[in-house]
Amino acid sequence: MAAASGLVFALLALQACASVSSLLSLPRTYPKISACVNEPLAYSCENTTAIKNTCCSPTPGGLVLQTQFWDTYTGLEHKGQLLPKDIWTVHGLWPDNCDGSFGQYCDLSRQYDPDPSPRVLPDGTPVPPYNGPGVDTFVAEFGRFNLLDFMEKYWVSQGSPNSDFWGHEHATCTSTFDVACYGPYYQKNQDVVDFFDAVVRAYKMYPTWEILAASGILPSNKTTYSLTQLQTALKAQTGSIPYLGCGSNGTVLQEVWYFHHVLGTEQFGHFKTVDSTTASTCSSTAGIHYYERTPTSEREVRLLP
Ligand SMILES: *[C@@H]1O[C@H](CO)[C@@H](O)[C@H](O)[C@H]1NC(C)=O
Ligand SMILES: *[C@@H]1O[C@H](CO)[C@@H](O)[C@H](O)[C@H]1NC(C)=O
Ligand SMILES: *[C@@H]1O[C@H](CO)[C@@H](O)[C@H](O)[C@H]1NC(C)=O
């Protein structure tokens, strides 16, 4: 009874929110892509002719990686920071310069990482730690509570607050998020919110837990899986072999990176999977553990908004 009336109350509250939001008009965060309408189309990393308008295709970071984690705990359970049950978490959306090299902290005027890694760039430039309001407040300022809610549930950090982790996953090395791409009406931090939307869009293409489960690969503290089994299962649904990262000398599965070439912008464009250009750190001979999580480290996130 109490649960039922609670649900009714929640639904009424939702309706109230919906009618309030229909009165509001939230600012758009998408870039101004009208300049790209007549640009030649090519998948990133596949045509060596320099791209004229770098707002229209990610360059030089045209090999785009959607990365995810399988953690078994967060370390901040006591603060309610829990993992989404039966779901791999978001790590980020990374640019690679088509050759294994990549940029980091490419625009220090948009540096929002409180704990930069590395602290000094390869050319000797120091990366000052950010100590302003968290990037979560940027998302809230644009009224994007739906995005914030998704990020809190699916983009979960281990050992640090979620928003510190999000601040590390900057878009400053991906040309289609450059401030200039937003046109004359750019609003501060629009690019950050736009980037988070792009990360979520790419992440949603890969329900890794489900893809592995489809081949009978479930988290288990009793059995192990071979690297080939894991790669075959992922290729069966994505067409390419992603990178798999393992800890403990290659025996504990921890992460996956899905590689792509992108047609058009990273925000709107088409992502085509390609094989990983990085060798797996998982053992090709030993059994690999895909551990069950500590039950008190997870929660069901699909139940309520
Ligand atoms: C590469 O792009 C250039 C300029 O857009 C175009 O003229 C050329 O045909 C493209 N080459 C290939 C192999 O697609
Ligand atoms: C890691 O694996 C290698 C190769 O299987 C083995 O030689 C080495 O002893 C292992 N190291 C540890 C710390 O288990
Ligand atoms: C499974 O093993 C992992 C790694 O040792 C551990 O953290 C986790 O709590 C275990 N889960 C269950 C359900 O036993």
UniProtKB/TrEMBL annotation:
CDD domains the UniProt entry points to: RNase_T2_euk
The source's domain of life comes to Eukaryota
Biological process annotations from GO? RNA catabolic process
Which positions are catalytic residues? 91, 169, 170
MF (Gene Ontology): ribonuclease T2 activity; RNA binding
Signal peptide annotation:
1-18
Q: Does the keyword Disulfide bond apply?
A: yes
Q: Which UniProt keywords apply?
A: Disulfide bond, Signal
Annotated Gene Ontology cellular components are: extracellular region
What InterPro entries has UniProt attached to this entry?
Ribonuclease_T2_eukaryotic, RNase_T2-like, RNase_T2-like_sf, RNase_T2_His_AS_1
**Does the record carry Signal as a key word?**
yes
**Which Pfam family is one of those matched by this entry?**
Ribonuclease_T2
Similarity-based family:
Belongs to the RNase T2 family.
Q: What is this protein called?
A: Uncharacterized protein
